[in-house]
Design brief:
alpha+beta, Fumarylacetoacetate hydrolase, domain 2, 12-stranded mixed beta sheet, 5-stranded mixed beta sheet, 20 strands, globular
């Protein structure tokens, strides 16, 4: 399945170039009062909802994709876990470009570890990227996003893929500077997820997906997930050794070489094989 959020928090099932509004199928989700759950309710109940979503789609009107404004496919991620320098060629470019390394030593992923991004930074492609620190370099980073589907606490590498609900495209935006990367990457709108999430059963080999990015039609990034230093099972196993991953948590797997600056007025198009493409406008905050 391909599931999207659009408009006024509507849930849609994507079929080719149209979307069917299946929001009514969510009426079976548990009603929550304070304290709220620590997991995204839709993702936590996705398999239970699957037959209802497919049934609802049969009678739901079709709306062209071009007419919709897409939000993040995950409404309530508990945390965004991101992998730095997880492609060798990106490490190489970071070490030679002072605009990236900002007079700091670029560590390997083994040395740097993972980092967290504020959930307040999450937006969908229709909401765009708002540049707050226009006096600094603000870079694009296309990544494969992994949506966790069930709790993962110290899982093994062999168990890891079984904890994935879906995949999406991710833009891990960053402000260059001397501060900790979690601060510079947690600016409002600096985590773009979308345009929809594709359930794990539809991605036969997440370790062999082309991904690319253009800015105003100019090619900037192009690689394949087989070039990941830490692959997806290793990332999930490693992350879950430090904290429990919950349904709706999103893992950003790292970006390949070709990162570069964007400015207000630019349009980014990010593409991941098997998922699709999303266009994101850049503006001044």
């Amino acid at each position: 399945m391909r599931l999207c959020r659009f408009g006024d928090d509507r849930l849609g099932l994507v079929e080719g170039d149209i979307v069917r509004d299946v929001t009514a199928a969510l009426d079976v989700l548990p009603a929550h009062r304070y304290p709220l759950p620590k997991a995204d309710p839709l993702i936590a109940n996705l398999e239970r909802l699957r037959p209802r979503l497919l049934a609802a789609a049969k009678s739901a009107p079709a709306v062209p994709i071009r007419d919709l404004a897409f939000l993040s496919p995950v409404a309530n991620p508990g945390k965004i876990v991101a992998a730095p320098v997880n492609y060798k060629k990106h490490i190489d470019e970071a070490r030679v470009d002072p605009g990236i390394h900002y007079q700091k030593q670029i560590a390997t992923i083994e040395q740097a570890g993972l980092f967290l991004k504020a959930t307040s930074s999450v937006v969908g492609p229709s909401e765009g990227i708002a540049i707050r620190h226009g006096d600094r370099r603000n870079d694009h980073e296309v990544e494969l996003g992994v949506v966790i589907g069930k709790p993962a606490d110290r899982v093994s590498r062999d168990e890891a893929l079984g904890h994935i609900a879906a995949y999406c495209i991710g833009l891990d935006m960053t402000v260059r500077g001397p501060e900790d990367r979690s601060l510079r990457k947690s600016v409002d709108s600096y985590t773009v997820l979308g345009p929809w999430m594709v359930t794990a059963d539809e991605i036969a080999d997440p370790a062999n997906l082309d991904l690319s990015l253009t800015v105003n039609g100019e090619a900037r990034q192009s690689s394949n997930t087989r070039e990941l230093i830490f692959d997806i099972p290793k990332l999930i196993s490693w992350a879950s050794s430090f904290y429990t991953l919950m349904p709706g948590d999103v893992l950003l797997t790292g970006t390949p070489e070709g990162v570069g600056p964007v400015v207000p007025g630019d349009v980014i198009e990010a593409t991941v094989e098997g998922i699709g493409a999303m266009k994101v406008a850049v503006r001044a905050a």
